[in-house]
Design a protein that fits this description.
Elements lengths: L1 H36 L4 H8 L3 H29 L1 H20 L7 H30 L5 H29 L2 H10 L2 H11 L6 H6 L3 H11 L3 H24 L9 H16 L2 H14 L4 H29 L1 H26 L5 H20 L1 H12 L5 H30 L1 H21 L9 H8 L4
Helix pairs in contact: 1-4, 1-5, 1-6, 1-8, 3-4, 3-5, 3-18, 4-5, 4-7, 4-8, 5-6, 6-7, 6-14, 10-11, 12-17, 12-18, 12-19, 13-14, 13-16, 13-18, 14-15, 14-16, 15-16, 15-17, 15-19, 16-17, 17-18, 18-19
């Protein structure tokens, strides 16, 4: 009888795992959508709130400040209150952020209201960047974990594409005066769907077992796995990890020490270079860049959709080969692609400065497509995998948080600085600055970055020459 029960559960378990992973990945999709949707509203925000270039930069960057705060604290909150509850809270932040920015008044204090709700939406993005992968990793049986966690990254990129596409469609059907509000407010619909679907998925077995609810955790594990043997493996893995976590807490291993200096600097470097490529600035301001290069308003939004498609295609390609050709190889290809594309963009912007036309806009589009392909194939696919691999078990969680904090801090800086630099110095100088930084990245990859492909996590410290 028990075998029959397990068999019945096996037939339905996979659907629950897939549904849970898809629901969590919707959080990633909204994350990507929120990242890129602001790109369609920048011109209107300048007009409505009478913003200078630095004022616009701060208005856009305030979300990344919220992201930093969300990423810093969400891991601790998820450990205390549960991954499932945190996903509900993230959905709430997304919904409030979308509606608050969409309905922000145009009165004197309206800009402050807009900034507040954009900040709250950013907190949701930061929390999602931590909690959605954690939830998916813990809900998935070991045999399915890699593909399902990758679904979150895929949906972030898909969300960016959908944001560009949504902005373009809204511009065609809504008056220019109100289009920016619809662009921001439309995110409320996937946020509501996300919250409603969360009622259909469970808490993770690992969190339940870590909080003394072992029977409930085992029951959910049984419903998630294909067979009882697979469930037993998951439960054994959870118990081993919980024991390791207890040991880590007992020993209180310090993080910022000479022992871990090498991997800390590696995490800092890859996260810093990720943003000094200019990728977030380009994602946030893509239509503005193409308008400055000579494209019409409508054409610039359609070109942004093309950039989103290229981002999606290159990400999918990289995820299929990252475990075959290696992290370092992808970074080398991506770094060379950065230099070619950024150098090309700088030359085009200098060559046509002051007399941009349709030819220059097409050339800039070509450069941006090559740039986003280089990013998605290299840095975009490697950064979080590499950071999660290089730190020893005892400090891996803190290492991941440190890498995320570095990433979002530099994202805020580049997002804030991009409009004033373009305004005062022009696009050619902006892309030339990013080009110089990417020369530094290529040297770092060639001289310092190790290959981590195929190295068991337990052996990584020995490969990197780190004391456990």
């Amino acid at each position: 009888m028990s075998d029959n029960v397990v068999t019945q559960k096996s037939s339905g378990a996979n659907s629950l795992v897939i549904r849970s992973a898809i629901v969590a990945s919707i959080g990633g999709l909204i994350f990507g959508f929120d990242t890129a949707v602001i790109s369609g509203t920048t011109t209107s925000l300048e007009r409505v709130y009478d913003l200078s270039s630095s004022g616009l930069g701060f208005t856009v960057a305030i979300a990344t400040i919220g992201t930093i705060i969300g990423a810093m604290f969400s891991g601790q909150l998820a450990d205390k209150y549960g991954r499932h509850l945190m996903l509900f809270i993230i959905g709430g932040f997304y919904l409030v952020g979308a509606l608050g920015t969409a309905f922000a008044p145009e009165a004197a204090f309206g800009h402050n209201v807009f900034m507040l709700f954009r900040f709250l939406g950013g907190i949701g993005v930061g929390m999602s960047s931590v909690c959605a992968p954690i939830y998916t990793a813990e809900i998935a049986p070991p045999a399915q974990r890699g593909r399902l966690v990758g679904l979150v990254q895929f949906n972030i990129v898909l969300g960016i594409l959908l944001a560009y596409l949504s902005n373009f469609i809204i511009r065609q059907i809504v008056s220019e005066e109100n289009a920016w509000r619809w662009m921001l407010g439309v995110m409320a619909f996937p946020a509501i769907i996300f919250v409603l679907l969360l009622f259909t998925v469970p808490e993770t077995p690992r969190w339940l077992m870590a909080h003394g609810r072992e029977d409930e955790g085992i029951r959910i594990s049984r419903s998630l796995c294909r067979t009882q043997e697979e469930s037993d493996l998951q439960i054994a893995e959870i118990r081993a990890q919980l024991a390791q976590d207890a040991e880590s807490r007992a020993t209180k291993v310090p993080f910022f020490t000479k022992r871990y200096r090498k991997v800390i600097l590696m995490a800092f470097a890859i996260a810093m270079f990720n943003q000094l490529s200019g990728v977030n600035a380009i994602l946030y301001y893509a239509p503005v860049v193409m308008q400055q290069a000579g494209a019409s308003d409508n054409a610039s939004y359609l070109m942004s959709v093309a950039v989103g498609f290229m981002n999606l295609i290159a990400t999918m390609t990289a995820l299929t080969v990252i475990d075959r050709i290696g992290r370092r190889s992808l970074m080398i290809v991506g770094s060379i692609g950065y230099l070619i594309s950024l150098g090309f963009l700088a030359i085009v912007m200098f060559r046509f400065q002051g007399h941009y036309n349709s030819t220059s806009s097409v050339l800039v589009l070509v450069g941006l497509l090559l740039f986003i392909a280089a990013h998605a194939f290299g840095q975009g696919s490697v950064i979080w995998v590499f950071i999660s691999e290089i730190f020893p078990n005892r400090v891996r969680g803190r290492g991941q948080s440190f890498g995320s904090l570095t990433h979002w801090t530099f994202a805020a800086l580049t997002t804030y600085a991009f409009p004033p630099v373009i305004d005062m110095l022009g696009g050619g100088v902006a892309f030339a600055i990013f080009f110089v930084f990417m020369c530094g990245q290529l040297l770092w990859v060639l001289k310092i970055m190790p290959e981590t492909k195929g190295v068991p996590l337990e052996e990584m410290a020995d490969k990197l020459g780190i004391e456990q």
